[in-house]
Amino acid sequence: MYILNMHDVFEKNIQYIKGVGPKKAKAFERLGVTTLWDLLNYVPIRYEDRTKIYDLENAPEEENVSLVLQVIDKRLVRARRFRIVKLRVSDGIKRADVLFFNQDWLNKYFKIGKKYYFYGKVKRDILNIELNNTEYSDYSEDIDLTGIFPVYNLTRGITSKTIRNIMDNAIKEVEKISLEEVIPESFIKSFKIKGIIESLIGIHKPEDFDHLKICFDSMKKREIFFLQFAFRYIKGKYSKLPHCLLKEELTLKEYQDLYPFDFTNDQKKVIKKINKEIFKGRNVNILLQGDVGSGKTVVATYYAMLAVKNGQHGIIMAPTEVLATQHFNNIRPIAEKLNIEVVLLKGGT
């Protein structure tokens, strides 16, 4: 176990990972994957549950299933527009045909009498059972080929099986690496976050669906931590920028009296709360949330007018010209009572 040198390992060009090479590296580049780190962060789009091995009798139709079948016969069928490698297979009781289109070399790959692992959809009719364009691999009683299999977004020249095989090689390069943890230990313990290498490996090679959820949750919690850290950092930097010192040149009562209706308790409460922040003499960013018609614009207008009363400019922006015009017509009569000039600036102006 050792502390990772990021440049030496994670920045390794994907071309030099076992099983890739220059040709596949170009295909991976189309997926935005150029380094070992990119590959480890290339998250599957879904997962296939291959934990159960079916026999031909009980395998459900129109659903991908795992089977272990022995090849008892094979032949290459030549047609005018395509060629078919046709395997006759058996699970020891039932028999079926497995068809592969335009893959002549498979006729040499499959050996009569040998067992193979197949994954695909079973189709039945009165006379026969058939599997088409099925995934396959050599079968060995010493190797467990069941489990949760990741499925990836693909491009020309790359299959999910190819990515899984290459991912296995990538994992071997990083599984014994120990990264120095940058998240506080208290946060790690409180939110039960796994190590980043352990989480990434679990996303690509989960033990089961519970383990997969734990690994995904750990990565999401890490993302949340760093987002919050970034927000706090930006907020701290922003608060130190040059700013104007606002004074309460327009009180809440004076502003309230400009309207022919009373403000709601929520409006009064939020204005008082915001005032505590802005009168401290620092820059602030405030997000005000509320339902349509709850009075958010009235609150925003108060601070635009407060800025003007302090010798500054106040700006209210709207997403459409129609809404901007509506706000202008509503705000101008109120602003005139304070001798504040309001202008409407539209995209076409």
UniProtKB/TrEMBL annotation:
InterPro entries registered for this protein in UniProt: DEAD/DEAH_box_helicase_dom, Helicase_ATP-bd, NA-bd_OB-fold, P-loop_NTPase, RecG/Mfd, RecG_wedge
Domain of life: Bacteria
Biological processes, Gene Ontology terms: DNA repair
Keyword vocabulary terms for this entry: ATP-binding, DNA damage, DNA repair, DNA-binding, Helicase, Hydrolase, Nucleotide-binding
GO MF entry, a single one: DNA binding
Annotated signal sequence range: none
DNA-binding is among the record's keywords: yes
Record-linked PROSITE patterns: HELICASE_ATP_BIND_1
Domain called Helicase ATP-binding: residue spans: 277-349
Protein known as: Helicase ATP-binding domain-containing protein
UniProt source species: Muiribacterium halophilum
